[in-house]
Specification:
heterodimer, A: alpha/beta, Rossmann fold, 2 domains, seven-stranded mixed sheet, B: 318 residues, alpha/beta, eight-stranded mixed sheet, two-stranded antiparallel ribbon, 11 helices
Chain lengths: 405, 318
């Protein structure tokens, strides 16, 4: 049972409400957003906070997602703290501005409520929107539950606006499962959040676009100038890994909750078999692991909390020397048979001390990743560890797929 | 600026109260209408404006390359899709932070009439307090002369070429300024480079009126390279556009339309088209269609400008 720490409040709220409350507590200057299922509740909540005076900010009720991202980009470059939220087609409709924000190193913070994306209209959960936008140059983090949504939004501001980082951060959480699920959430007080974010005020001010100051932004980067900026961007992405771990520690000091930074480990100390997962599926995986542990099976979970930059060092460190690893993807990697996160981890296979890898694809378009499905994945990974023949890729909820391909 | 006798000051020089923030030589074509305009705006409105610009003819100069630009203004180089949303973000933050500002969202007709129309319309609906200036060269001149929503009927462009079975653009142009004047914004106006006093007054009025919300200026800015006329003729082309009512000069304060220049005995639109190569292939029938379109737009403008006086609301029910 959660007990309030200091002056925090315990409430039962949805993931969307947690996102809105997290944003409100960060005291943004400008919020711009456009409704889309399953994100809509986030902006409804923020609009209500604004209407009641609880949230003192400029609220821009834009005519589309593209304008939402463009507005917050400009407000951020002018010096403001900003917030927006979207999902799926909305994220894709703002994609040119998503890229521009990253290139401009504008510390925009947003939540993306994961939903299936273009191709087939699917109003259902899936991480395909995250995968479709992963190469944008943003920092991507993934939250498992309502509490973590709120906490990651606060951490995102610390990360985005840090003087050494200055990159936009997108916090992802599963649509429908987390967005609409009501859970007990420990809501920190305004004072404690102010204190947590106050370190940003002690840092040097970032470059801002100020009237009359003979300073512009958004030049054509060409040749060497472009290379310089791109390399600085890549370097900042690399720095953000350790920074995220550090922020997690400081979050612990302030609020008494810690998640492990880039990755969270569950029952990993002696695990011989590991599932790698992200987002809401991790709750189910943890409870199945508890059951399997009671049956004497040494299984653990490696939960990705940061997806871009890819926490490769932490993943290698964590998976090295395990017997077998099953990577669960809630999205597809068109052009590859295995899921996207599987494919990326596969790139480090030679550094994992012989750990064998398999890909599980499940949870697409609201197909539930049930406890039975997770047990099935663990069993197959155990089979792999025992040297049995296991297919490289398994579509867990669509057995027909496993006969062909 | 040399001293002139009292009462004899040029109405144009009189308005140029600020330094030209642009380099003396910049990467525009000879006779560029856009260059005249972009130099004129800060000289009238002040060098503390923040300009936003997009990939376009203005981009090489306004946006610059790497850490160098060809002017000393604060500027924001951005995307065509979201130009008005960018200006919105800037002005909202400045106003919240108590920073004095005049944000000028400066775009070509490709952004204003085509790809960025949606967010411009949204900014107008929300009455965002900045100035949107569209420099209209009637097409995508920077990418190599393609058709846009403001390209007039009959004009030859690389996407409406003259060939067997094609006689240039076979659609009529969009009247962008009227659309914006219908958006219930505090100020909308048209202007061009042959009437700089008129343009200066409108720039200053927009700067004043933006405190009440969204202001829109549609500036006719011909392109010798894209349209095919002698670069020395740019201002003359503007003059002819006004004299033929091809591009009438008017303003709308709080939706009330008023002509700022009335043309008595306008010349036929043929007079405007004559020096311009993009119309050269047109025959009498084509010219008549363009004339009809010009007349139609003028009638619409005339009708709207008397609306205020003539409109009688039906009696309300008891």
């Amino acid at each position: 049972m959660t007990t309030p720490r200091n002056d925090s409040q315990i409430k039962v709220i949805t993931g969307n409400a947690a996102a809105a409350i997290g944003a409100k507590l960060a005291r943004p200057d400008v919020v711009a957003a456009y409704p889309i299922t399953p994100q809509t509740e986030v902006i409804e909540q923020l609009s209500l906070f604004h209407a009641t005076g609880e949230l003192d900010c400029e609220l821009i009720t834009v005519e589309g997602e593209n304008s939402a991202m463009n507005s917050v980009m400009a407000a951020s470059l002018a010096g403001g703290r900003v917030f927006t939220a979207s999902s799926s087609w909305g994220l894709v409709f703002m994609y040119d501005a998503v890229l521009a924000v990253a290139g401009a190193r504008a510390p925009v913070v947003m939540v993306n409520v994961n939903r299936e994306t273009p191709g087939i209209i699917a109003v259902s959960c899936g991480q395909q929107d995250m995968i479709s936008t992963r190469d944008s140059g943003w920092i991507f983090t993934i939250a498992e539950n309502c509490q973590e949504v709120l906490d990651q939004v606060l951490m995102a501001y610390r990360l985005a606006e840090d003087y050494d980082i200055q990159l936009p951060v997108m916090v992802h959480y599963d649509g429908f499962y987390v967005s609409y699920l009501s859970e007990v959430v420990d809501i920190p007080s305004q004072e404690s959040v102010d204190q947590f974010l106050s370190i940003l005020k002690t840092q040097p001010e970032r470059t801002k676009l100020v009237p009359g100051q003979k300073l512009g932004c958004g030049s054509h980067g060409i040749l060497g100038g472009y290379l310089e900026l791109r390399h600085k961007h890549v370097s900042a992405m690399e720095r953000s890994k350790a920074k995220f771990d550090q922020i997690d520690q400081e979050f612990m000091d302030q609020f008494g909750r810690s998640y492990g930074g880039q990755v969270e480990e569950y029952c990993m100390e002696d695990a011989e078999v590991v599932l790698v997962g992200s987002g809401s599926m991790c709750g189910t995986i943890k409870s199945v692991i508890d059951e399997k542990r009671e049956a004497g099976i040494k299984v653990g979970l490696l939960k990705l909390r940061m997806y871009r930059p890819f926490p490769s060092e932490r993943i290698i460190e964590s998976l090295k020397g395990r017997k077998a690893v099953g990577v669960v993807d809630r999205s597809l990697n068109f052009g590859f048979k295995g899921g996207p996160i599987y494919t990326e981890i596969k790139a480090f296979e030679t550094q994992m001390g012989g750990a064998k890898l398999v890909s599980f694809i499940d949870g697409i378009a609201n197909t539930d990743i049930t406890k039975a499905n997770v047990a099935n994945m663990i069993d197959m990974t155990c089979d792999l560890a025992a040297g049995k023949d296991v297919p490289e890729v398994t579509w867990v909820s669509y057995p027909e797929a496993n006969e062909g391909v | 600026m040399s001293e002139k006798k009292k009462g004899k000051l040029s109405p144009v020089i009189d308005y140029k109260k600020h330094e030209d923030p642009f380099s003396k030589g910049v990467a525009f074509c000879p006779g560029c209408g856009l260059e005249l305009l972009i130099r004129f705006i800060p000289q009238v409105m002040g060098n503390d404006i923040v300009m936003t610009g997009t990939p376009s003819c203005s981009a090489p100069v306004l946006l610059g390359q790497n850490n160098q630009s060809w002017h000393s203004l604060s500027y924001f180089g951005t995307l065509m899709t979201g130009a008005a949303a960018n200006a919105t973000g800037l002005v909202r933050y400045y106003n919240r932070a108590g920073i004095d500002n005049t944000v000028v969202c400066f775009n070509g007709d490709g952004t204003a009439a085509d790809i960025g129309f949606g967010n411009m319309s949204g900014a107008a609906e929300r009455n965002e307090p900045f100035i949107y200036i569209c420099y209209d060269n009637e097409g995508y001149m920077n990418t190599g002369i393609q058709k846009s929503g403001t390209t007039p009927y009959g004009a030859s462009t690389t996407t409406t070429p003259v060939a067997k079975g094609s006689r240039g653009k076979n659609l009529r142009r969009m009247n962008l300024a009227l659309k914006m004047a219908m958006s219930k914004i505090p100020y909308a106006a048209t202007a061009t480079l042959s009437d700089l006093g008129d343009l200066a007054k409108k720039l200053l009025k927009a700067k004043e009126m933006k405190k009440n919300g969204f202001c829109f200026l549609h500036v006719f800015a011909p392109c010798p390279t894209g349209w095919g006329y002698d670069p020395a003729m740019t201002v003359e082309v503007c003059r002819r556009a006004v004299k033929t009512n091809y591009f009438p000069l008017w303003e709308a304060e709080n939706g009330k339309i008023r002509m700022t220049k009335t043309v008595n005995k306008p010349k036929p639109v043929e007079h405007y088209m004559e020096p311009i190569k993009k119309f050269k292939h047109l025959d009498d029938n084509d010219r008549a269609i363009l004339q009809e379109d010009v007349d139609y737009e003028l009638c619409m403008l005339g009708g709207l400008s008397i609306l205020e006086k003539e409109c009688v609301l039906p009696e309300a029910a008891d």
